[in-house]
Design brief:
mainly alpha, 116 residues, 72% helix
Length: 116
């Protein structure tokens, strides 16, 4: 039952993040430098954390899911390229990918303990 909840929540979050990504931005520059990159990093760190709970084995054993999540970052940037109010940025995708990789490097010991 927990897997169904985590998987449903993950799908909801993926859809929610995509909706946020293609929604027109306010256009006002942030007073915090690189805030958008920090948010990209944190969102993908969170998505990876949730995805880890969607699997029975450690996420590192599911390479295809890791590649799909990084590919999702590419998909968001490509989608933004085709909108009038957003722009695709390589650094955004890099921040997305770093969020995934940082989770994979540092968090598995924490999530394994939480999964029990």
């Amino acid at each position: 039952m927990q897997l169904v909840f985590y998987r449903s929540f993950f799908i909801f979050m993926v859809a929610f993040v995509y909706l946020l990504a293609i929604t027109p931005s306010s256009g006002n520059p942030s007073p915090i430098p690189y805030l958008d990159k920090i948010l990209h990093f944190l969102i993908f760190l969170l998505l990876t954390f949730i995805l880890d709970f969607c699997t029975r084995r450690p996420l590192k054993e599911h390479y295809y899911l890791i590649f799909l999540l990084i590919g999702y970052g590419v998909f968001i940037e490509v989608s933004q390229y085709f909108t009038a109010t957003r722009s695709a940025e390589f650094l955004d995708w890099l921040a997305d990918s770093l969020g995934v990789l940082v989770y994979l490097l540092f968090a598995p010991n924490i999530s394994i303990g939480l999964k029990k």
